[in-house]
Write a structure and sequence with these properties.
It is a single chain. With about 200 residues, the chain is an alpha+beta fold. It has one domain: 3-Layer(aba) Sandwich (Glutaredoxin). Helices cover about 55% and strands about 10% of the residues. It has nine helices and four strands; from the N terminus they run βαβαααααααββα. It has a four-stranded mixed sheet with strand order 2-1-3-4. Strand 3 and strand 4 form a beta hairpin. The protein is globular and about 45 Å long. The model has no long low-confidence stretch (mean pLDDT about 95).
Amino acid sequence: MSRHLDFYFFIGSTYSYLAVSRASALARAAGVSLRWRPFSLRTILREQGNSPFLGKPDKTRYMWRDIERRAARAGIAFSGPTPYPIDPESRAGHVATLAETEGWCEPFAREAFRTWFLDKLDPGNPEVLAGIVARLGQPADTLQRSESADVAARYVANTDAARALGIFGSPSFVHEDGELFWGDDRLEEALEWACSRP
């Protein structure tokens, strides 16, 4: 029986950079396939009346230092705080959703987060986003296609699915039995869970 996890991620979640950078290699080593699921965490947080870092300078300073420590521990490149928040129009989220349907979600997510964290550019900026898409060898009309009603509906559907699963943060990993693991620091545990199921 194949083992898999649904990997719910939001382009705009700082801690998701760590998971996006390392999840695939760890999953392959464990014999677990990942299904990449972009969703709008921003929508869920607004519904809950909650913002994890905005207006919270002490928590924000801790977040950046924590990411720096975790990146160093995992051998992930990190060069200090990056623009935050990003992608107010969810353009990158919509491209990720199109990529999900076409089978290139993982490389897109990795390049979008790399651009955000290492180039210090907002991947939701149309010019930046066009550059990401071009580097991945995708067609010139990709951004236009990502603005379709079908893509928007799928992004909403992914968000609805995340909400129904009780997801409240990104990254989140969900096994088919409904077991939920939130946070980059739960990735290994999620993989262990997937491997231990009959």
